[in-house]
Amino acid sequence: MTGTVVLATHNQGKVVELREILGDALGSGVELQGYDGPEPVEDGDTYAANALIKARAAVAHTGLPALADDSGIAVDVLGGAPGINSARYAGTRVDADNIDLLLRNLDGVVERTAAFVCAAAFVTPAGVEHVVEAVWNGEVLTERRGDGGHGYDPVFKPDDADRSSAELTRAEKNALSHRAKAFRGIAPIVREYFGA
Predict the structure, then answer these.
(1) Residue 130: beta bridge partners?
(2) Which of 68, 82, 127, 158 has its CA 20 to 30 A from that of 48?
(3) Whole-angstrom Cα distance, residue 59 to residue 52?
(4) What would the pLDDT profile of 101-132 be if each residue is shown by its tens digit?
(5) Which of 69, 70, 95, 153 is catalytic?
(6) Do residues 98 and 152 make contact, with C-beta atoms less than 8 angstroms apart?
(7) Going by C-beta distance under 8 Å and a sequence separation of 6 or more, which residues neighbour residue 52?
(8) Global pTM?
(9) Catalytic: 43?
(10) Residues 147, 162: Cα–Cα separation, whole Å
(11) Nearest of 69, 63, 71, 75 to residue 37 by alpha carbon
(12) Is pLDDT at 2 greater than 80 in this prediction?
């Protein structure tokens, strides 16, 4: 079993994370390649729709099968916001600005339950499409803790951990996270595509 899959993201932190998550799950013959093509407009109204938009764009640009994801944080008291707009929440696409706005919007709020949500998409050049979604339940902290990870990790404390996501080791996060669950769920489909 050999082949190449494009990781449809320009976020190098995510590329590293996905290579770690998928390394053993895909088998030794599948190479994960970075993506340097154009970024599509993510105008879907769900995580799955946006993940498929990114994967389709990468397939169109490279002619190779592609994996993509869309993820965000959904805060219950905010009606699921920032949700699919998590990366653009503050309008700057800067993680620190997004966190600052979220903490301001939750100032004084006691009930801070939330979930990280991830939709992982696999699209083939023949147009076959698969999506697997996963959630990681937890709560939003009142202040940043830890300097690992990316995005909202410093203010998210998972239910299944005693620290913020940013305080977990990479191995711990890759064992528990929404992204790990979604991509491990889609890995068997990728293996099957390559005839494993």
Answers:
(1) 122
(2) 158
(3) 10
(4) 999 999 999 999 999 999 999 999 999 999 99
(5) 70
(6) yes
(7) 44, 68, 121, 123, 129, 131
(8) 0.93
(9) no
(10) 16
(11) 63
(12) no
Calpha distance 86→70 (Å, rounded): 10
Amino acid present at 79:
G
Alpha-carbon torsion, ordered 73, 10, 13, 76, to 10 deg: 0
Q: How far is CA 13 from CA 36, 164, 165, 170, in A?
A: 15, 18, 15, 11
For the stretch 142-185, pLDDT in tens is 999 999 888 999 999 999 999 999 999 999 999 999 999 999 99
Helices (H), the chain: 12-22, 47-62, 95-105, 170-176, 178-193
Sheet with 129-140: strands ordered across: 30-33, 3-7, 66-75, 113-123, 129-140, 156-158
- State the average pLDDT over residues 186-194: 93
